[in-house]
Amino acid sequence: MHTWKRLILFPAKASSRFSLFAKINLLIVVLFIPILIMYTYSNSVTYDVVSNELQISNTKQLTFLSSQIDSRINQMMDFSLILSRDPNVRAFNGLNMWDDRYDQMQTRYVIQEKMTLQSGVTDIWPTRYAVYSQQNQDVIANYNRSSGYDEEYLKKNMSGQWTYGDQGTAPQDGLQSFYWFFTDSLAQPGTLTGSNLVIEASFSYENIQNMLDTYKAGGQGDPFFYHKGDAPILNRSADKQLSQELIRYLDTHASEDTTQDVVELGGKKYLVSSVKSTYLDWHLVDVIPLYQILQPISLSRNLFYACMILLLVVGISASILLYRNVQYPIKKLIKGLRRVEQGDYSVRLHSNKQNEFSFLFHRFNDMSHQIQDLIENVFHEKIRAREATLKQLQAQINPHFLYNCLGYIINMAQMKDEQAVVSMAHNLSAYYRYTTRMERETSSLQEEIKLLINYLDIQKLRNGRIEYHIDIPEDMLQQSVPRLMLQPMVENSVIHGVAKSYSSGEIRITGESEDGIGKIYIDDDGPGVSADQYEALNMKMKEPLQEEMGCGLWNTNQRIMHLFGTQSYLRFCPSPLGGFRTEIVWEIPKEDRDPERGNRN
């Protein structure tokens, strides 16, 4: 049993710690947290870097496009200045002194040819020019005009700046052309003196669209030309719904020369960049869908998170499987060991799976079964040994004084004392009838008292000085006690007390019970013994039986201890009668503590 306790102590310690299931899950979470933090930080840095680079790149590209438009506009303005100083143009604005109509036509042809050549330099930026002679009330243009010279038209548009539209009727789609009027007059700008030469330079909104289409083809944006209050100029493949939403946003936000904002529309983020044109007072706006450009990063991030969640699920699933297939069987085995430690050897473990733990469970069941069989065998052997010991002790007690009684009967028969013979034979018969009934280990205290009366009557026949008194409470008479528990004590008082003194002869037997403890006192008025002898005699009751010791008292003490427990005992001390006292103390069994038990029986 000590070996078993040492083996079971180890698993008991495991209950005070975290379970393996909780440890594994905690370890998984601890491993995942730094990975998630590092990846989130890395992804955030990557996202910011890419976003910043995208903004810088977009600003540079948009600035470059705006500079291209301004460069072409500047070329038109330079050409207008050069054209105004051309001799043929000045001749066209001079006095009508030509005598030859051919020269006039030749001059007009040369001027028109120069404007046409300048307009056809590039297909992406077609231009229109017109030369107005205020003095001659005439106009030369490289495009078809619906009307001729119009003085009021010139006065309305002589602002010195580029204007959108010629103040005429706007087209059906709201888009117009850009115009610039130049005169080399020394008068106040915007005024006509009556002899001015006016150069008109213009280009269609389609030029802007061409530039926007070329820009869009090389990037991922959706550019357009914007001026608050005018219809925007969109590229030809623009998302009109998105452009309208952005225009509403731009109308409510003041635009600076160069701006860049991240705008969220419809739950999606867009990078809106704008650059102001130097000559036109319009803004070149580009819209880049950040959610599409940064989608690979977001997709990679989401894929990583999905993988981490999947790994977490797999890890937890693995821990659950580990718990079900490893920790749970271990806990089951520990519970079984604890029950064995508590003395329950009937515990059996069962498993529906065929694995290593099923093998351990089978071995545990075999071990528990063998221990149970061993303990039951030891218990039965112990019971049989106790029964054999009791019967041996009883057999040792029974024939103790037979020979003296038979001798007394012989003597009385020889003396022709029939009454003494009958009385002795009657008591001796009752005495041995009781002592030879071996089928029961115990009897009632009342039966033991009857045996004492038979015994004391026998001794009184042999020794006339003997007188005895028995005082046992009625509630004790039905209690179960070992057979022949009192007889050896009374016999000891007769032989070693009364028989050794001619002046003594009283034997008193009394009893009491209190708090579940029964006590019987056997007193005599014999010579008694010294205090040291009392102490030595009490010590011998606790020691193994020795050859020089009498077996009667020792056997009785052992029987009491066997039946009632180690708290039951014999004790020897001086008697109030002046002789020897024997105290018999035992723990009354619970079933004998009911005071009405005797009445029911």
From TrEMBL:
Its main location: membrane. SUPFAM superfamilies: ATPase domain of HSP90 chaperone/DNA topoisomerase II/histidine kinase, HAMP domain-like. Pfam families: HAMP, His_kinase. Its EC number is 2.7.13.3. Keywords: Cell membrane, Kinase, Membrane, Phosphoprotein, Transferase, Transmembrane, Transmembrane helix. It is a multi-pass membrane protein. SMART domains: HAMP. InterPro entries: Bact_2-comp_sensor_kinase, HAMP_dom, HATPase_C_sf, Sig_transdc_His_kin_internal. It is found in: Cell membrane. Residues 324-376 form the HAMP domain. The keyword Transport does not apply. One of its GO terms (molecular function) is protein histidine kinase activity. The chain crosses the membrane at residues 20-41, 303-323. PANTHER family: SENSOR HISTIDINE KINASE YPDA. This is Two-component system sensor histidine kinase YesM. It comes from Paenibacillus tundrae. The lineage of its organism: Bacteria, Bacillati, Bacillota, Bacilli, Bacillales.
